[in-house]
Amino acid sequence: MAIPNVSFSSPSSSHPWNHDVFPSFKGKDIRNTFTGHLHHALFEKGIKTFKDDVDLRKGDEISPALLEAIKQSKISIIVFSKNYATSTWCLDELAKILECWKSIVQMV
What we know:
It is built from five helices and two strands; from the N terminus they run E-H-H-H-H-E-H. It has one domain (19-103): Toll/interleukin-1 receptor homology (TIR) domain (Rossmann fold, 3-Layer(aba) Sandwich). The chain is of the alpha+beta class. 42% of the residues lie in helices and 11% in strands. Strands 1-2 form a two-stranded parallel ribbon. Helix 4 (62-71) runs parallel beside helix 5. It is globular and about 30 Å long. The longest helix has 16 residues, at 88-103.
């Protein structure tokens, strides 16, 4: 998978980016296939990608922690799969991503 050369340095704004990329996807559908390959390709390019099974601590409330991770990511990538829209978690993530796109000009 070829990843274009994109600069991920923080913009001049004071927004606290903790991650370069937040991928939104239906885990059961593609966690160990497409998004696994995507994460690896981004990692190889030095792009810090949020990964729920790594970045969330046990005991964290999933929804608030994920929503905060979206807010703290410079870019969100939405990976639509067969069952993406059947997941209320995915739809909540999508709503937050669109909110961030409008309010903090997050790239989507």
